[in-house]
Design a protein that fits this description.
The chain is mostly helical. The chain is built from 14 helices and 3 strands.
Length: about 300
């Protein structure tokens, strides 16, 4: 496992990804209670069957276990990967976790009521930025003063795998960020990150997620778990709903391939039906089309 961890670090994976792999392998090792070279496909199946987790988590377990044994095969330690013969976990079709337009308005307006103090203004800037750009929460929290160019209307983002991209921000987002940054620059702080706590420490993913959930409860939002990820999904839905280009969306989201972008487009296909019905020329022009059933 230590050798595998070194291999993963060389691939420049994020600390959270490294932690996930190590936690899964430790969990699996404690479950099977046998050396890795004695692990069989049945051991992996039993692990997936008996662990009390959701199908999504079990699918992640299988991917990470498979990757570990593939590494051992490439290194010549094992002849075969026992996870290769294990069937993929069947996943239910996910339901898009997005906020409706009314929920977005209620959430933002409620946070704006607290913008008279530093924490409220910071939370407003963070939520508006996430909704405006679809950034991952880790990407937003790692932004520094040098990464934000309000004059040009762009933020420079360091994404997964250390890949850098430039993401545009709207005029509305620029106004909120400008107000927050003016306040933030008055605070003496050892970090150049723009999002900090009232104790002048970098804002963490946990605290940011908890703050967003707090406002959602205050508003009384139901039917969706309000989190940084659901705000990212909301950005994607609105982009696709308004006819935004999928290739540009891929660049904004920081996807290295169009696979995930295509997945999002399929995921939100039902959301596109209503605007399509409203905007298609066949629905809005006085066309004399046959209305009788074909015999």
């Amino acid at each position: 496992m230590e050798a595998y961890l070194t291999y993963l670090r060389a691939k420049n994976l994020s600390p959270l990804t490294l932690k996930s792999h190590m936690q899964t392998l430790t969990y699996f090792a404690n479950f099977v209670e046998k050396p890795f070279y004695e692990v069989t496909p049945e051991d992996v199946r039993r692990f997936l069957r008996d662990t009390p987790h959701s199908p999504t988590t079990k699918a992640k377990f299988l991917r990470e276990i498979h990757a570990f044994f593939s590494f051992l095969v490439r290194e010549g330690v094992l002849a075969h990967n026992p996870a290769s013969r294990v069937e993929k976990v069947k996943l239910p079709e996910p339901t898009p976790r997005t906020l409706s337009d009314q929920q977005v308005v209620a959430l933002v307006n409620t946070i704006a009521q607290h913008a008279h103090n530093f924490a409220g203004l910071r939370d407003l800037a963070l939520v508006v930025l996430l909704l405006d750009t679809g950034l991952r929460i880790s990407e937003a929290l790692n932004l520094t003063f040098e990464d934000v160019d309000l004059l040009s209307g762009f933020v420079r983002v360091l994404g997964k795998g250390g890949k850098e991209r430039v993401v545009p921000i709207s005029n509305q987002c620029k106004l909120v960020l400008a107000k927050y940054l003016a306040r933030r620059k008055l605070i003496t702080c050892p970090t150049s990150k723009i999002f900090i706590t009232t104790l002048a420490e970098p804002l963490t993913r946990y605290v940011a997620t908890r703050r967003i959930a707090h406002y959602a409860r205050k508003v009384g939002i139901e039917g969706v778990k309000v989190s940084p990820h659901s705000l990212r999904f909301t950005f994607v839905r609105k982009w696709l709903e308004s006819g935004g280009d999928s290739l540009i969306l891929q660049r904004i989201l920081g996807h290295s391939s169009p696979i995930m972008t295509s997945y999002y487009a399929r995921l939100f296909a039902t959301d596109l039906k209503k605007p399509h019905e409203r905007h298609t020329p066949l629905a809005n022009l006085p066309l004399k089309l046959p209305r009788q059933r074909i015999k």
